[in-house]
């Protein structure tokens, strides 16, 4: 799975656990190497709760996760002398993932979010075990986690178990250089001692929604920018296709149809088109009454996606404030079994978000296709080619877009409506939230690629409108694009150009260029 990952050193940034965490903190640790540390309050809280677990472990009364087996084996009492082995066996047996290796930033987000819950004082973990997890995270040691193994219920069990193995000095892991080395060697090099897990700690390390939540948080972070990128590329396509900007004026949006996302997207598009000589050139004498839907209705589609993301953010913020484990230690010291590990609330919005990603991508592909078709492009050469017939221009780039959009439609099929019972029918309904997260992550990547191809087509179309002058935003972007991939001309190896433009979007430089010209966008 393709992922845009960067590794700037933000190790001077410190995230201190108090209660809950924020989207920005997750991204800072997962993507940008910020350090995570325990506050003194958190240390005291964890230590106090651990004393309660130790008392239960010494009791003759069986307690789930402390002196019993797990899942369908919850009724099996485990004698004191076997409990260390019980914890080791739990982690080793649950680290059963398979398939492609999950991206580094996903694993870091998963570990950070698990540590957040452990620091809540509701899991019964020991301070030294929690500190070891943070030490591994801060040393940039990344356990190897695989694509398949979580059903999004009883937590992201296999992914978290692969991480927990590293605390024990076992399993597989990558060092700061991204190379796999023996875990024991990586820990020793970082001055970290492995831990021997005590009662309850095995469950505490693996019984959470952290994998699906971490991927959700990073998707929302990416989409915060990508929806604005979609507004800009749509506006540039309007410019390249000699479309009108009058359908984006504010009086047509908030007063008549008060969806906030729609108003924001329309305002962005209007700002991008402001001062465009190309748009002004056909305000009179143009026989067209209305532009095609893919131009005229763009704010409704991207705006609707914005509003959906706003709802999804509410769900993410609630889960970021949660302490998910089973059993949990309540504030009065009671240890209680529960079902808070079920990933349904997150799985639904993970699935939900894949739909409004597919639609802006589909609309962007339709605008690109329109720019390549001489019957609909209002004077542009076929496929924006230098010498149509000899040159194919961007013909196959649109094929690539179409393939990406088709994949996004497949990814929009929900995972959360499926459930395959497990653990001898004890876990008879699962959320498949991890799979919903993996789908959404791929959909985000696809959307960026689709928009990169639209940007390549739109800037070429605008360049071919010379001597008509585009707006300030288009002019600035055109200079940047031509500096990276050149301007219109004979056919050349196109894949590196698409990749270069995609990186231009992923780095944030594209929006910085635009906002540096026209001011802040929504």
Question: Segments where pLDDT lies below 50 for 5+ residues?
Answer: 1-8
Helices and strands: which structural class?
A: mainly alpha
At the fourth level of CATH, the homologous superfamily of the largest domain is Fumarase/aspartase (Central domain)
User: What is the overall pLDDT average?
Assistant: 92
Shape: elongated
CATH class of the largest domain: Mainly Alpha
Distance between the termini: 30 Å
* Helical content band: 40-55%
Strand neighbour order, sheet with most strands: 4-6-7
Largest sheet data: 3 strands, antiparallel
CATH topology of the largest domain: Fumarase C, Chain A, domain 2
State the domain count.
2
Number of DSSP strand runs: 9
- Tally the helices: what do you get? 19
Query: What is the strand content?
Result: 5-15%
Query: Which radius of gyration do the C-alpha atoms yield?
Result: 26 Å
Instruction: Give the SSE string.
Output: EHEHHEHHEEHEEHHHHHHHEEHHHHHH
- CATH architecture grouping of the largest domain: Up-down Bundle
Family: Belongs to the PAL/histidase family.
Catalytic activity: L-histidine = trans-urocanate + NH4(+)
Subcellular location: Cytoplasm
Organism: Kocuria carniphila
What's this model, at a glance?
This protein is mainly α. It is 54% helix and 5% strand.
Write a concise keyword list for the protein shown above.
Fumarase C, Chain A, domain 2, histidine metabolism, disordered N terminus, about 525 residues, mainly alpha, about 55% helix, 19 helices, 2 domains, histidine ammonia-lyase activity, L-Aspartase-like, Fumarase C, Chain B, domain 1, 9 strands, 3-stranded antiparallel beta sheet
């Amino acid at each position: 799975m393709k992922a845009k990952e960067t590794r700037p050193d933000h190790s001077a940034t410190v995230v201190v656990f108090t209660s809950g965490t924020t989207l920005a903190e997750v991204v800072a640790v997962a993507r940008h190497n910020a350090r995570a540390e325990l506050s003194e309050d958190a240390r005291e809280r964890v230590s106090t709760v651990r004393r309660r677990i130790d008392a239960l472990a010494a009791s003759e009364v069986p307690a789930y996760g402390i002196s019993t087996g797990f899942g369908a084996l919850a009724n099996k009492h485990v004698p004191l002398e076997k409990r260390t082995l019980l914890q080791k066996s739990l982690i080793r047996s649950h680290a059963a993932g398979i398939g492609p290796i999950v991206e580094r930033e996903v694993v870091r987000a998963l570990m950070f979010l698990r540590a957040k819950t452990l620091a809540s004082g509701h899991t019964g973990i020991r301070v030294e075990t929690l500190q070891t997890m943070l030490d591994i995270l801060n040393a940039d040691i990344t356990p190897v986690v695989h694509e398949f193994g979580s059903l999004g219920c009883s937590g992201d069990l296999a992914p978290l178990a692969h991480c927990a193995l590293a605390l024990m000095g076992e399993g597989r892991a990558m060092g700061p250089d991204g190379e796999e080395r023996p875990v024991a060697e990586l820990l020793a090099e970082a001055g970290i001692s492995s831990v021997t897990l005590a009662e309850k700690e095995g469950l505490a390390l693996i019984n959470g929604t952290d994998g699906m939540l971490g991927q959700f948080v990073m998707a929302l972070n990416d989409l915060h920018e990508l929806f604005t990128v979609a507004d800009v590329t749509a506006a540039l396509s309007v410019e390249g296709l000699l479309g009108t900007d009058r359908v984006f004026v504010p009086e047509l949006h908030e007063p008549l149809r008060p969806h906030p996302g729609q108003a924001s997207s329309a305002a962005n598009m209007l700002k991008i088109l402001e001062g465009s000589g190309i748009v002004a050139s056909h305000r009179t004498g143009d026989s067209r009454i209305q532009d095609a839907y893919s131009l005229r209705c763009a704010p409704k589609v991207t705006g609707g996606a914005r509003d959906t993301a706003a709802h999804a953010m509410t769900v993410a913020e609630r889960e970021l404030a949660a302490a998910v484990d089973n059993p949990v230690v309540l504030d009065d010291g009671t240890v209680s079994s529960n079902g808070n590990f079920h990933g349904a609330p997150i799985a639904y919005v993970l699935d939900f978000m894949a739909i409004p990603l597919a639609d802006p991508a589909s609309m962007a592909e339709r605008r690109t296709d329109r720019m390549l078709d001489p019957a609909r492009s209002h004077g542009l050469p076929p496929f924006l080619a230098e010498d149509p017939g000899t040159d194919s221009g961007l013909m196959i780039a649109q094929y690539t877009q179409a393939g990406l959009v088709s994949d996004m439609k497949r990814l929009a099929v929900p995972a959360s409506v499926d459930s395959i019972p497990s653990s001898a029918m004890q876990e008879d309904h699962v959320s498949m939230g991890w799979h919903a997260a993996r789908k959404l992550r791929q959909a985000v990547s696809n959307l960026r690629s689709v928009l990169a191809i639209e940007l390549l087509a739109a800037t070429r179309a605008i360049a071919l409108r010379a001597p008509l002058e585009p707006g300030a935003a288009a002019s600035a972007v055109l200079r940047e694009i031509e500096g990276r991939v050149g301007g219109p001309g004979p056919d050349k190896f196109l894949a590196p150009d698409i990749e270069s433009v995609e990186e231009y979007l992923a780095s944030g430089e594209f929006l910085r260029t635009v906002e540096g010209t026209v001011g802040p966008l929504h």
